[in-house]
Amino acid sequence: MNSMFYAHLAVQGMRKNGKIYLPYILTSVGIVMMYYIVSYLTYSKSLYNMTGGRDMQMILSWGTGVIAVFSFIFLLYTNSFVMRRRKKEFGLYNILGMGKKNIASILIWETLITFSSSIIAGLGLGILLSKLSELCTAKMLGENISLGFTIEKQAIINSILLFGAVFLLILLNSLRQIHTSKPIELLHSDKSGEKPPKAKWFLAFIGLIILGIAYYISCTIRDPMSALLMFFVAVIMVIVATYILFTVGSVTLCKMLQKNKRYYYKTEHFVSISSMSYRMKRNGASLASICILSTMVLVMISSTLCLYIGKEDSIHNRYPREIAMETYSIDEQYTNAVKGVSEKIVENHNLNIDNLLYYNCLPVAGTLGGSIMKIENTGDYSKLTQLYVFTIDEYNRLMNKNETLENDEIIMYTNKSDYMYHEFTIDGFQSLKIKEQVDEFNKDIVNDSSALSVPVVFIFVSDVEQLNKIYDFQLKQYGDNASLFKNYYGFNLNCEDNEETAIFDEIRYEISNLQSKDENFPSVKTDSVIYNRESFYSMFGGIFFLGILLSVVFIFAAVLIMYYKQITEGYEDADKFEIMQKVGMTKQEIKKSINSQVLTVFFAPLITAGIHTGFAFPILLKLLRLFGLCNTSLLIGITAGSFAVFAIFYVLVYKITSISYYKIVSKQ
Amino acid sequence: MTILEVQCVEKIYTTRFGGNHVQALSNVSFTVEHGEYVAIMGESGSGKTTLLNILAALDKPTKGDIILEGKPLSTIKEKEMTSFRRDNLGFVFQDFNLLDTFSLKDNIFLPLVLSGKKAQTMERRLQPIAEKLGIKQLLNKYPYEVSGGQKQRAAVARALITNPKLILADEPTGALDSRSSDSLLKVFNDINQEGQTIIMVTHSTKAASHAGRVLFIKDGEVFHQIYRGNSSNDEMYQKISDTLTLLLTTGGDRNE
Ligand SMILES: Nc1ncnc2c1ncn2[C@@H]1O[C@H](COP(=O)(O)OP(=O)(O)OP(=O)(O)O)[C@@H](O)[C@H]1O
Ligand SMILES: [Mg+2]
Q: Is residue B246 within 8 angstroms of chain A, CB to CB?
């Protein structure tokens, strides 16, 4: 009976504050749904059985982690808006003689109601939509699936456990707030203005420094591997700096504008600036959140879309030719055998070898400091460099040149732009004079090698003898871990996919025959684009899919923050504008002052998100290199496009939410 | 010359769901001359605030009209009304209506900002008023940081700062101790001497005794009025208390 009374009060309170509660419940429904869908996909058997499905599930399971952390932070955040409005009511109950224990029971009821409704609705929607998302994934992986309807028990259990814990923590947080504040504070919690943070210049300085370092990291990072490591560090630094700068920035801006009497005491600015400074910290935090979410969406969408669109590029860079054999020897006895087998089989199929690429080289890893390359394991991975040694004859053949070299001379090509020495010393072996540092070498070879995440140096030496000497030297240095010579023989075919795979299988079979006949026959790595394409597609498809999912979640969050910002401010401002009208402000002036508020702050997050994305660009480019994609113009285009689309969306959402603000303010 | 003419004003409030009707004013008529100082007295709930709101065109009467400087309020458009109110009327609200987001100073400046005055002009006008009302030290505080009486004085300052022709004050001394209400009444006397018209609702006989005329409202009608004539404040005080006693007894009669 008694507990029903509190349940009744809880329902009543929620209904009365529907404008605040409804979006809160909708948010949690949406997040539960998202979580269930992603978690469903990671458990789905049919996805597991698709080619590449397992890669995809691995990427998605990473996504469930992100959504879990995010949902906690975000629900806590939205709940704070709800609490802010409810506190006054609780304060009143408290003063009228309701104990804090009883208030706690109301809160427990409210949380129970919110939790159960969002779990029921969220799981319901999630189960309905999970099939659809499975179809989407299948489409991305290029597969068909049966139209059965399945429910993953484990995913349901996980969702209930996760959100049970999230809501429990939120409840505890609210209880703590109620418990620690005095009734009069509760009653006036929406009246008192926010105090500006202390030491704001120092804070601003720290914020700027952190942001500067993050930008610096992004702009100066050289190789993809450290980009991967530093990316998350930089992301966290940018997030921290954005929060600091937006908070301090909005406070400082308000103070500055308030000091400027000419500007401040204008009808359009007067109201908006004073209310901005009244809720400056909250304002700063909301704007920073919007900015960060926008940046995340922009970065994720543009990079994953770029990967997805550029996947053929990436495959081509990684596999310059459709069929390729890498023989780990340059002994013509063997290389010609491999070549002969391939030519014969292609001829048997009445086809021609297309776009042939073949070369011999010696790949050696080492550490490069200045102009000195150490061929030994120094443990200093930051200077790790991949060296490719070719003979000058190979260079001349591949590049149609006619260069000759002395014994101690080389020609060099490198993607390390800061190599500016006149010699190249292999430590303990020989110092080689650089006759010329060329700025072009066969693109397919260069792209293939730059898929490696370390800097690469190509040197072209005088003759085979010199090549052999280097081979012997590194053999002596590395012993069992020494590199082998590599002969690459790759070509394209003009035929259907299934004929091409048939040819590839035949070649592979013939080569293994050769190997079993001669025990000295070197190992041969065979690659077919068709075989690899699937796993590329599933990986890139998975990443793109996850990018879209997370972007949807983040956009959703950003929209909600905007909505909450407008709604709560609307309620706070409604009384204010009523008084204004009594003192003599016309409806037009009210509209104008609302607009002024907008222009001063609302577009700051969008602009900052644009700047963040711009500075993230270099590091993204390096990261995409990890996937063998070096198409700068594609990334620029897609990023700019996403920004434009996002900006339009942002303005639209802004317009819509500001209409609801105006409605509340003018009490329509 | 007449500044204000109230003609047979009636106000009926309809509650939210249209069920109950409350007759706040039934038939109020009186006129106010330029430079007059009028006090309105009456029991709680007799319709004083309602009347004042209608005078300031914050609310519309159900019947009758208000003629302000020869112009019926019902003929003024909503948009003109706001600027008219801003330039000609100063209103002290019973519940202050100060804005939490503004410091007291900015609250006081509000009507001047709305009419586009320069910052220096505003400062210059503020100083003497703040001095007289004794809130000079509090100007940079926010409403939630000051006492009720201090808020009330700030609300008075906001009504006075535009130098309005007509001041409408709803219990301006309600939250003040006798010393601050004395100084507030002195301010009112001074500005009245300078020619401004004041209409003040009050429960305090002492406050009313400063006025040139006192209107008594009962059951939504003007029940009685007394003029000062040549009497002193003390004599006026006596007249008012007599009338109030009368009011109470006849009220008792009617209720029987
Ligand atoms: N907005 C409203 N809706 C319905 N009834 C109202 C409204 N405002 C006032 N009333 C009623 O009209 C009557 C007159 O109210 P008013 O506020 O004018 O009284 P008052 O004379 O100012 O009283 P007090 O001295 O207590 O301020 C009261 O009975 C009140 O309940
Ligand atoms: Mg009243």
A: no
